[in-house]
Structure formats: C-alpha cells, structure tokens
Design brief:
This protein is α+β, with helices and mostly antiparallel strands. The chain has 21 helices and 23 strands. The strands form four sheets. The protein has a nine-stranded mixed β-sheet, with helices on one face. The chain starts with a strand and ends with a helix. It binds adenosine-5'-diphosphate and magnesium ion. The site of magnesium ion (MG) has 4 residues, from helix 2.
C-alpha cells in the first residue's frame, strides 16, 4: 500500500529555486547528504546516551557511499537515527524552520531571495540537482516498521511500508544522464576528501569488486581536546590547511563560548609567503559549519593585515549552506572575525615578551601587520604596541613604542620619527643632528606603510607622534657658538632663494643643524620627501611634488663665510656655484638624485684642488 502526498507549497517553490539556482557547484549535494548522514549518526549517539536500549544501534556508526555505474545510481547509506513516517512527512515534505513558508511564498526568483533561502536548511533537496528520482529506505532506531519514500522532486512523494533490518537510512539517487560522473569512484573520493574529510565518522567508498575504502582521515582535529593533540598532529594539520611546509610559528586552538559558539585552529607560519604583498593573492580561513567544510579562503574571517594567518574556523551557529555573498553580510561572521582578531592580538602580546622569538614573526610579517594601524581603527593602539621599529637608540635592534617611551627625556614632548629607505642612511640625516645633540631618540621608519599609518595615528598612550620637522619645542637649545650676522645671513638667504627659484619654495635659517651646513625639508603639511619618492617610484602623482625648504645652519663656519661673502659683488659667481653644490648635498643627504651629477663632481673636484 503506498500513499501519495503533495509537497507543501513552499517546498515546491523551494525545490524550484534550489534545483535551478541556489548552488553553483552541483557536487555539494554529496556534502549535504553526508552531512545529514553524519547528523543522523550524531543523533543516535546522543539518543543512546539517554536510552540505553538503543546502545546496540549506536555502535560502529559509519557512512557508506555506493556508486553503481551500470545503473547510474548512487547510494548514501548511514546507520544513524533513521526516520519514521511522520519524520519523512515532516522533515522531507515540509520545511520546518519557522518563517520559511512566509518567506518562500513572498520570494521572487531574484538574486537576493536566492541568497537568503540558503539560511533555511534545504540541504536534502539539493539531491534533485543531480537526480531525477530519489528513493529513501529508512527505519527509525527503536521502532520495528521501516519506510520507503520516493519522489521525482516535482509531483510530490509516495510513502509505503517496507522492511529493513538495521536502523538508519539509505538514500538512492537515480542520476540524471548528464550527472553520471557521480558514479566514478576517483571523482567521488576527491569530492569526499575535499568537503567531508573531517566528518568524524568513517566514510566508506564501495569500490565494487575492489572492495571498500575509508576515504576520510577521521575525526576533526579541532574538535578534540587540546591536551590530547600532539605538536606533530597540529603541524600535520597546518601543512594540510596551509599547503606550507614550514613549521608554524604560532598555533592557536581555542573555543569561543557564549551567544555565538565557534572553534578556531589558527596558525602563523614561520616564513613569509612569496606573494604577501601581491594584491591578487587569496587569503582567509577555511570555514566549517559543524565540521562540514563550507568554504576555502573566507576573507571575511580575517582583516587584511592578518592575511598571513592560516587555519580553520568551525561554528555550528552559521547556516550550512551559507553562500559567499551571505558571508559578506552575515553579522555572526563579523563577530567571529572580531573574536579571532582579539585572540590573535592577545597571543602576539604574550609572544612579544621574548625578543628573539618575536623577531622571527616580525621579520616575516611585520610590514603587513603594521597595515593594521592604518586599517583597524578599533585595535589601532594595540597593533601599534605590538609593532617594532628601528630607532636611533640602537641601529641593530628593534624597539617597541613602550620601550621608546621608557627612554624619553623628562622634558620630551613627543615620540619622533623620520621616514626613509634605509636605517643607516636615515641615521645620518642632518635633520637628526639637534636630536642627537639633545639625546632625543628618533624612530627610523623604513617601510612604505610607515608613511601611511603615521598619517592616522597621532598619539600613542597620551604621547604625540610627530615627524621630526614638527619638533620645534623640544629642540630649543642655548647655543654659544659664533653665529652668522643677521644682516649677512638675510642677504645670503635672499641670494640663494633667487638662485634656487623653481627648485625650493623657501630658504630659511634653522636651529636644528649642528654639523651639517644645510639640509632639506618640506613646507608644513606637505608629503615628506620619502613619500614623494615612493609615489614617484610607483609612477603616481609626480604632479603633486612637495615644495622643498632649504635650511641653513647659521652656526656652521661655511655658512658664516658665505653670509659675509653675500655683500661682496666680486664673490657672486663663486657664491652661485656654491649654492648649487650645497643644494645638491642636501638632496644627496635625503637619498634624492641630483640633477647634474657631473657638474657637481666637477665643482667639488675643483674645490678639492684648492685644498691641496
Ligand atoms: P537540515 O540538515 O539543515 O535539517 P536537510 O534538508 O538537509 O536540512 O534535512 C532535513 C531533515 O531531514 C533533517 O533535519 C533530518 O531530520 C532529516 N534527514 C535528512 N537526511 C536524514 C538521514 N540520513 N537520517 C535521518 N534523518 C535525515
Ligand atoms: Mg542537512
């Protein structure tokens, strides 16, 4: 006796959407059916805990995949909880989740509805993407009667009584002509490994005459107790998820509990990947929902500055068929990401206490990590505190901002920095002379990203962060050396300004220099010479070159002499030459190219000749 029934209206509509447009990759039907089989095993496992009579049914739980190429069928068999007649009608004939009917009945077949529909758990129906008929033979654990269910996914379904010795469910797919590849064992093995490797029950592939093969590696590592996992097992898993062959520098395994539950197993590699700074590289974590693989490289789970982190996140609170588009908007995903960032930063904080150990991390990923100061507003200060920089205190060692602060002079008002390409060149920049004279430490920033974060982080722990050009207050010194006469100096400044018209915006006298006669800076608020050079190297914005300022050291004997010469008309041509040589020197000290190198060399050689 078989009973014919109609699908509920919303199921018909849902089937239509699922079959025609929900999933872009048909092979995921297998993931869905294996996931259901695994759920059924989970359920019997749980039931057996409550009802010891069921214990014999909960032993030796497994999932079998039986392809039949000749008849173009594929069976997914489990010995889990099984279904009775009511279950079949309620679970496979309606969509139980509240609000589904309303939603589906109002749904237009447009893109956004299709995305949303995934939230309602329609996994079973994905079988109809590849099959034009589905049969189910099932018996519920603890009940005698078995049931047979059959449907073509269009005209409703039929249910009849059946016989089955073991509890559990057999789902038989009659594959569409175009989908007969799903009987190919090589292909099946590959799909199962890709999507269901970490299902905690054995997934056994029937190879016909060749016997049987357990395809998955077994239980999901991240679900196990931390104390029982060896370092080697973690490393194996790291190799598997990251496709790297180094040892992870950091392994972080945690479980977040509360409103939103998820487990993370994250790794920081010990070596920098070759493409860390390539814009088209794919980053992100693997996402599992309830041990079922959902998606690779989920960028939404990691901010860009932590793009070197590898690993997985598993949350049972996300819908299984969450799509890429949904990931972008999902609030839970955003919360998980925040949680991950906090944990990573906390762990980095701990590891940062050991200088040599942390240096390994910093050398590999520091440049990318610093982008966070610019990118991650909420964690800006924390990221800055975890960042390391060169400074004039010790050119061989990196310092933290906190250590810098601990060395600050009592009267020092701010944390000072200078930017450039090379630590040693920067350390000799004439602009640092007064800082050296006063014993004020200056950070030597040599990464392009430093030009950017310094534009957004103005304070760290109540201390201003300032470019050395803004240090006026800190640099006031009583200077006792002889100084060029004011009147002479003004004449020299006027002369040089005229000579360098078009090259520099201003010539000024400065208190900042001690040993160099001249130095170059930019007008207030304009991009630094280093940033301008970076932009130029990237062929951007040459039109927006900063306006330069040539600064003269009025205490330098050469400037004093030149100032005296400025009133002597017979010295005019020498003064012209020397102005150009000094300007070139200032450019060189900044790491800039000079316009006429051979002219410069010629003049310098001539002066040298005079000295011998
Ligand atoms: P979900 O898995 O999100 O609940 P599905 O459409 O995948 O949605 O499955 C619907 C329901 O059908 C399941 O919740 C379960 O009650 C039942 N079901 C499906 N497959 C099986 C199975 N192999 N064994 C027992 N019950 C199953
Ligand atoms: Mg399911």
């Amino acid at each position: 006796m078989s009973e014919k029934m109609e699908f509920k209206a919303e199921v018909n509509k849902m089937l239509d959407i699922v079959i025609n447009s929900l999933y872009s990759e048909k092979q995921i039907f297998l993931r869905e059916l294996i996931s259901n089989a695994s759920d059924a095993c989970d359920k019997i496992k749980y039931m057996a805990l409550i009802n010891p009579d069921l214990a014999k049914d909960a032993a030796d739980l497994k999932i079998k995949i039986v392809p039949d190429a000749e008849n173009k069928t594929l069976k997914i068999i489990d010995n889990g909880i099984g279904m009775n007649k009511d279950d079949l009608i309620n679970h496979l004939g309606t969509i139980a989740k509240s609000g589904t009917a309303d939603f589906v009945n109002n749904a237009k077949d447009n893109g956004s509805s299709v995305d949303l529909i995934g939230q309602f758990g329609v996994g079973f129906y994905s079988a109809f993407m590849v099959a034009d008929k589905v049969e189910i033979l099932t018996r519920k654990a603890g009940e005698e009667q078995a049931w047979f269910w059959v449907s073509d996914g269009i005209g409703g379904f039929e249910i009849s009584e059946a016989k089955k010795t073991e509890s559990g469910t057999e789902i038989k797919l009659f594959l569409k002509e175009a989908e007969k590849d799903f009987t190919d064992t090589v292909y099946l093995r590959q799909i199962i490994r890709l999507y269901s490797d970490h299902i905690s029950y054995p997934i056994i592939l029937d190879l016909g005459k060749a016997g049987e093969e357990t395809v998955n590696t077994g239980s999901a590592l991240w679900t196990r107790n931390k104390a029982e996992i060896t370092k080697e097992q973690y490393n194996e898993f790291y190799h598997h998820v990251s496709k790297n062959f180094d040892e992870p520098w950091m392994t972080l395994h945690f479980k977040a509990e509360g409103n939103l539950e998820y487990t993370g197993l994250l790794f920081v590699p010990s070596t920098q990947p070759y493409d860390l700074f390539q814009p088209d590289r794919k980053n992100g974590l693997k996402l599992y929902v309830n041990k079922v693989f959902i998606s690779d490289k989920v960028e939404e789970l990691l901010p860009n500055y932590l793009r070197f982190v590898k690993g997985i996140v598993d949350s049972s609170d996300l819908p299984l068929n969450i799509s890429r588009e949904m990931l972008q908007q999902n609030l839970m995903v955003a919360k998980i990401r925040n949680g991950i960032v906090n944990r990573l930063l906390k762990e980095l904080k701990k590891r940062s206490a050991d200088y040599d150990d942390y240096l390994k991390f910093w050398t590999a990923f520091g440049t990318a990590f610093k982008e966070g100061i610019y990118e991650d507003f909420a964690n800006r200060e924390e990221i800055a505190s975890l960042s390391r920089f060169y400074s004039t205190d010790n050119l061989e060692k990196l310092t933290s901002l906190d250590d810098y602060i601990s060395r600050m002079k009592p009267e020092q008002k701010a944390i000072y920095y200078i930017t450039g390409d090379d630590v040693k060149v920067l350390a000799n920049n004439p602009q640092l002379e007064a800082f050296k004279a006063k014993g004020i430490e200056v950070l030597l920033l040599i990464d392009p990203i430093d030009e950017f974060w310094t534009q957004v982080l103005f304070k760290y722990k109540d201390k201003d962060i300032k470019h050395i050009s803004q240090a006026a207050d800190d640099l006031k010194v009583e200077r006792k050396e002889t100084k060029a006469k004011e009147e002479d100096l003004n004449k020299l400044i006027a002369f040089m300004a005229k000579e360098l018209e078009g090259e520099v915006a201003k010539v000024i006298s400065t208190e900042k220099l001690t040993t160099s006669p001249v130095s170059l800076s930019v007008l207030d608020g304009q991009m630094s010479i280093h940033l301008e050079r970076l932009m130029r190297n990237h062929q951007q914005q040459t039109a927006f070159a900063s306006q330069k300022v040539l600064e003269l050291n009025p205490y330098h004997p050469l400037i004093i002499k030149l100032a005296e010469a400025a009133s002597d008309p017979t010295k005019e041509s020498t003064l012209k030459d020397m102005t150009m040589v000094l300007y070139d020197q200032a450019l060189i000290a900044e790491g800039e190219a000079i316009k006429n190198p051979s002219g410069y060399a010629e003049k310098v050689s001539a002066y040298m000749l005079n000295c011998i």
